[in-house]
Amino acid sequence: MACAGAQTRPLFGGALSAALPSCAQDISELREIPDNQEVFTHPHTDQSMIVELVEYQGQVEDQDAAKYHFEDIASSNKALESGALEVTHVVPMPKSEVALSDCSTAWMLTGIQSVAKFNEEARNTVTLHLGLFRLPQFSTDILVTFNDPQKIRPESSSAPSAETHREPWTVVDFQRLLQTLTLHNPGLFG
């Protein structure tokens, strides 16, 4: 299946929508996914894009919130030890460049994590691109992550897909998702 182009997909039962690469596979069709997440994978690489609704962290300043969530993801990935994570840059996204007008601020972070899949010993180097939309009026932060493996260890369960790195997703695909994320039903936030 070719991965050219994008298509607008409904998220969370149509409460949100965004343009995703046309070849993105909805993981909820294959296995159980938490209700607060939409997870999509590339059919030929080990890349994934996740849209996640998380609790708004009011104690964290806007400019620090993306790093806060990046470190929270690193904790979940057991990537907190020294040298296992690095934030390379954090930039605000101008509201004029995002469709999600309900957000108070929007941020984009790029970082690197050394993570193992499925509690394996082999740790892969993954560039993690994170988009953060802050919605304090709904007590919600929307996290959008693009996991882009850079170095996959031969003993990792991801190694077979590393050999077939055809038409990988790019940062442009991720930015398109961030720019087109649209809220249709605020009832999503309870």
UniProtKB/TrEMBL annotation:
Top-rank taxon: Eukaryota
GO molecular function: guanyl-nucleotide exchange factor activity; small GTPase binding; sodium channel regulator activity; transmembrane transporter binding
Pfam families per UniProt: Mog1
InterPro entries for this protein: Mog1, Mog1/PsbP_a/b/a-sand
Keywords recorded for this protein, A-Z: Guanine-nucleotide releasing factor, Protein transport, Transport
GO cellular component: nucleus
Family, per entry: Belongs to the MOG1 family.
Protein known as: Ran guanine nucleotide release factor
